[in-house]
Write a sequence for this structure.
């Protein structure tokens, strides 16, 4: 939940410091930024109008919306289960103890915001889904421990992994697609062939961009965080601390005995462990980055960590309020993607951006196009499949390094995430906030990230 309209707002200091800019921007966007569901509908209206102009048929565009509406059903369920299982794991006694230990490390409000930002970005290099859920849970625990920390700035820091460097890590959709012959469409393979990971994620230029972005993001998080006098804390925003649901530990009736016994949890956990071990042995550890395997692993871990089925079920029930936005809004975005592709709008946009590029401007043009399209197609892998045929064909004709083209896409497509509610939904569900509560500080990051990232991909392109 967000702050009540009757609550007094803190007045931003009159200085021109980054903290005062962050406060003003946050207060303004809290007032004017629409609800995430309303924003999704507005995006659908804009794409419908544009798609109708391109296709010349409102009926065709509307049919594309309906046909695409269900395209993200599997992904929606995966994200919902990521939230539920991640939450259940986090509030299990062993893992919650680790989160409490980590939350005790920062001692000041600004230090807490920088600490959560660092954790969010580094963990996103391992897995975007792990980063999204655990950074939110860590932020909520930190907010309950550090006095005077601004909860909005903390939430925005927890979101930085998805808005900055995740696509440079092990779960990079575009890089993984290009490196795997089995997942590479023929239309793309005919242009570029397979591009191994050492030519995308392993480029030294990629490490430079990642290091600069991480350092810059932490600095912005630290210096934009308001002091205790100006902060809006978790308490003032009406969000309770993260606590495991309390329950008795022994059965009161014979019918409850299995609910409080670890026998069934151990049995299911052993079955899951055997399956995962077999998968890793035959397909390698990378298989655990597959969302289905990732969710399965967290589900099994949650069952075992809670030890008793009763405790696990209560943890799942506590997590369910966090998934409402995902279940309702993701199908809307799937319909938007359907209109983009079905009307031919995405193809027209790609052709336009490619047509205005040259040898020297190509990385910047690709970056701007990828970030722009991210507002309407918030799916890195799906968006890459839309863009890749046009971008890679143009890159070959301009003698561009194809691996760096993929990394240019990775560096810039995440920019839209900083201010787009699509990926915020799981996080704000965990934080108990609305998108407008954290988008002010995310917008500040966006304003700085866009020119810096575009400059980096342009300059580093000269090293090939």
């Amino acid at each position: 939940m967000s702050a009540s309209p009757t609550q007094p707002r803190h007045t931003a200091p009159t200085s021109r410091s980054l903290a005062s800019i962050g406060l003003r921007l946050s207060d303004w966007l809290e007032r004017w930024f629409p609800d995430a569901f309303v924003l999704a509908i507005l995006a659908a209206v804009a794409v419908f109008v544009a798609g109708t102009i391109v296709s010349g048929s409102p009926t065709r565009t509307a049919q594309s919306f309906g046909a695409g509406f269900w395209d993200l059903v599997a992904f929606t369920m995966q994200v919902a289960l990521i939230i539920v299982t991640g939450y259940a794991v986090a509030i299990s006694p062993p893992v919650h103890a680790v989160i409490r230990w980590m939350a005790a490390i920062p001692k000041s409000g600004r230090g807490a915001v920088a600490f959560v930002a660092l954790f969010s970005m580094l963990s996103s290099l391992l897995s975007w889904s792990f980063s999204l859920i655990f950074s939110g849970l860590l932020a909520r625990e930190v907010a309950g421990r550090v006095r005077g920390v601004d909860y909005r700035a903390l939430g925005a820091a927890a979101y930085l992994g998805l808005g900055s460097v995740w696509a440079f890590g092990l779960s990079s959709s575009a890089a993984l697609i290009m490196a795997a012959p089995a997942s590479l469409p023929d239309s793309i393979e005919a242009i570029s062939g397979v591009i191994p990971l050492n030519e995308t994620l392993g480029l030294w230029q990629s490490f430079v961009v990642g290091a600069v972005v991480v350092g810059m993001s932490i600095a912005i998080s630290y210096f934009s965080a308001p002091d205790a006098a100006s902060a809006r804390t978790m308490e003032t925003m009406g969000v309770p601390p993260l606590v495991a649901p309390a329950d008795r530990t022994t059965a009161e009736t014979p019918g409850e005995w299995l609910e409080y016994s670890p026998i069934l949890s151990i049995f299911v956990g052993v079955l899951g462990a055997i399956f995962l071990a077999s998968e890793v042995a035959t397909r390698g550890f990378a298989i655990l980055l597959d969302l289905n395997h990732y969710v399965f692993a967290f589900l099994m871990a949650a069952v075992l960590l809670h030890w008793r089925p009763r405790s696990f079920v209560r943890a799942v029930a506590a997590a369910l309020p966090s998934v409402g936005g995902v279940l309702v809004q993701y199908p809307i975005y799937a319909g938007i993607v359907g209109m983009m592709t079905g009307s031919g709008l995405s193809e027209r946009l790609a052709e336009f951006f490619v047509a205005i590029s040259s040898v020297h401007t190509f990385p910047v043009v690709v970056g701007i196009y990828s970030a722009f399209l991210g507002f309407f197609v918030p799916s890195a892998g799906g968006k890459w499949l839309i863009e890749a045929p046009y971008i890679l064909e143009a890159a070959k004709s301009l003698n561009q390094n194809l691996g760096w083209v993929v990394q240019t896409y990775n560096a810039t497509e995440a920019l839209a995430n900083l201010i787009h509610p699509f990926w915020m939904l799981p996080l704000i569900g965990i934080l108990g906030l609305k998108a407008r509560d954290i988008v002010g500080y995310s917008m500040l990051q966006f304003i700085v990230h866009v020119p810096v990232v575009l400059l980096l991909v342009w300059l580093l392109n000269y090293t090939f």
User: Anything to note?
Assistant: Confidence is low (pLDDT under 50) at residues 1-15. The chain has one domain: 18-39+64-240+257-463. The first helix runs from residue 18 to 32.
